[in-house]
Write a structure and sequence with these properties.
By secondary structure, the chain is of the alpha/beta class. It contains 13 helices and ten strands. It has helices at residues 5-17, 31-38, 54-67, 83-95, 118-123, 126-129, 149-166, 180-192, 209-218, 222-229, 232-238, 245-257, 274-286, and strands at residues 20-22, 43-46, 70-76, 100-104, 134-139, 169-176, 199-204, 207-208, 241-242, 263-269. The chain has an eight-stranded parallel β-barrel, surrounded by five helices. Strands 8-9 form a two-stranded antiparallel sheet. Strand 6 (169-176), helix 8 and strand 7 form a beta-alpha-beta unit. Helix 1 crosses helix 12, helix 1 (5-17) packs across helix 13 and helix 2 runs parallel beside helix 13 (274-286).
């Protein structure tokens, strides 16, 4: 399907304008730069790192709100030691100005408390009690690293039903990908199964290619990472650097080819550094027409 390049550029800019980004609590000194580069109100996800203190997440949310940004703190189910602590943390997040959450199971093999997955967190009713009616959950275009496809579908069906029954504004944020094609196929499969939750597609910001590949293979993002690693010409072309431009263009082409795809935007994982990713995203918003348009994440 031939798509006019101007339409691809316009769609790239639309994806960029809808983008969210991650920032660790340790990187909060760059909040002012984010406002300058991306504008007030930009959604900034605050990951919860292993061995971290949840108080750092709360403090980061307060700092982001003060800077004019919209924090979306990660809440890892397996890191919650008790229902009482969950209640307290949600209250502190709300008091810090956060009104959205991103629920994850967490990478701890053994739960610290009674929660082993995000569904159990939803079942407590505490999110509603504290006014958290905007909730993101994970999506896995290339498969969940620890759950089979059937289990993932059941979990997604549960979450979609929760969103309908409670009036929650729920969306998916995918694992980061390198190739647009698996995303397009996964979005079609979601729609065929009757799922209508909007999707933010996770992409790595500019970074060293070797770092991204190693991280991707550890995280179970195998198909597109292995395919990219097996293309020496592409690696030479990038000079060991990853640029997200072709991937975003591929997503734009896929969206134009399938306008019913429930894409809500892109989500940036700044593995190469928050400033570099924010500058790249700002330039994409300002000058999408000048980027290199390609059909996928690598050609």
């Amino acid at each position: 399907m031939n798509i006019d390049q101007s339409r691809v550029s316009a769609t790239v800019r639309s994806l960029a304008l809808r983008a969210s980004i991650e920032m660790t609590p340790a990187s909060q000194t760059y909040a002012g730069d984010l406002v300058r580069l991306l504008g007030a109100g930009t959604a900034v996800y605050v990951p919860y790192l292993s061995r971290a203190q949840f108080g750092d997440t709360i403090a980061a949310c307060r700092h982001l709100v003060g800077a004019g940004l919209s924090p979306v703190p990660h809440l890892a189910a397996r890191a919650v030691p008790s229902r009482r602590q969950l209640d307290a943390w949600l209250g502190e997040l709300a008091a810090a100005g956060a009104d959205s959450l991103f629920l994850i199971a967490g990478d701890t093999a053994k739960p610290r408390g009674p929660f082993s997955d995000t569904m159990q967190i939803l079942e407590t009713g505490l999110l509603q009690r504290h006014g958290f009616n905007k909730v993101g959950v994970g999506g896995f275009p290339e498969g969940h690293p620890h759950a089979d496809a059937a289990a993932s579908r059941r979990a997604l069906a549960f979450k979609a039903a929760y969103a309908r029954e409670t009036g929650t504004d729920m969306w998916l944020v995918t694992q980061f990908v390198f190739d647009a094609e698996p995303v397009a196929a996964w979005l079609r499969a979601l729609r065929d199964d009757g799922f209508e939750l909007p999707v933010r597609v996770g992409i790595p910001g500019p970074a060293q290619l070797r770092t991204l590949l190693a991280f991707a293979l550890r995280c179970g993002i195998g198909t597109s990472a292995k395919a990219m690693a097996e293309r020496p010409a592409m690696v030479r072309k990038l000079a060991n650097r990853w640029s997200p431009d072709p991937l975003v263009a591929g997503l734009a082409r896929g969206w134009l080819a399938d306008p019913l795809a429930p894409i809500a935007g892109i989500h940036i994982f700044p593995f190469g550094g928050i400033r570099q990713s924010a500058e790249w995203l700002a330039s994409l918003r300002d000058a999408a027409s000048g980027m290199i348009i390609a059909t996928g994440a690598y050609d």
